[in-house]
Amino acid sequence: MSRNSDRAAQYRGDLSQTALPEMLAIIDRTRVAGVIEAVSGDFSKKIYLDDGCVVHAASSDLADSLGSYLRRAGKISESQYQAAMRKRSEVSRRLGEVVIEQGLLTPAQVYQAIREHVEAILWSLFSWEEGEVSFSIGQPDLTGIVRIQIPLRQVILQGVVRAANAKSLVQRMGGKETRFEPVFRYEDLIEIALDGGGYALLARVDGKRTLYELCTGGPGPAADAARLLYAFSVLGLVRRSGAGDAPERRAGSPIKIKLRSET
């Protein structure tokens, strides 16, 4: 990624050169508040960060609106949606407030729906292979917005796991004979909420098994293992054997932001 000279806090990257998970991992190391914006074609999507966590996400695509999500997920019917939208227009209130007032959903259900809606926007970004991504540093304005709290490192893991094109991810990790060694800390695994299957794969990374052996060694599909191994690499849990010391990721000493495109 490259720095925009017009704004000291603005950084940009091209998805055709640097994959989104790699950009997010670089941004995560800074642990600073800000807004990530991805633009592709006519649409833009934003991720709001605070203290290493995603606290909100938004999209200019009407298909990504909360109302559209509530209908798709079957949480409200089409007629209920239309009635809620009419009421929302009359009273100039947020849709979540209206559906609670109308007795369609409880506050707890609205919060869960908002969280799932934000996650849907996040996961959709991991399918983008073209477009521009920028990161603007600064406390985001979330006035009137319901905040969620998802560690960005969890977002990276879950987004990669949901990525459709495993082949393109493996190509970013080297050839099938590439070997990896573990460099994780157990607190890292707790932070990303790594499940049993993921931990079993990570435990097989020993600096001797090749990428091909790790992906095809089971018990799950090779494509799933490839996605996980790519995520582990991006998150700094594994590294290519002989690659030297893993970069420091935690606060304690300041980390300069180096958002530079790599091919």
Rg over C-alpha atoms, rounded to the nearest angstrom: 20 Å
Poorly predicted residue ranges:
1-9, 245-263
- Domain count, please report it: 2
User: What sequence of helices (H) and strands (E) makes up the elements?
Assistant: EEHEEEHHHHEEHHEHHHHE
How is the main sheet built? 7 strands, antiparallel
Strand content: 15-25%
Tally of helical segments: 11
General description of the model:
With 263 residues, the protein is α+β, with helices and mostly antiparallel strands. It has two domains: 9-76 and 107-152, no CATH class; 165-240, no CATH class. It is 41% helix and 16% strand. The strands form two sheets. It has a seven-stranded antiparallel beta sheet. A two-stranded antiparallel ribbon has the order 8-9. A hairpin with a 2-residue loop joins strand 4 and strand 5. It is elongated, with a radius of gyration of 20 Å. Mean pLDDT is 86; it is low at 1-9 and 245-263.
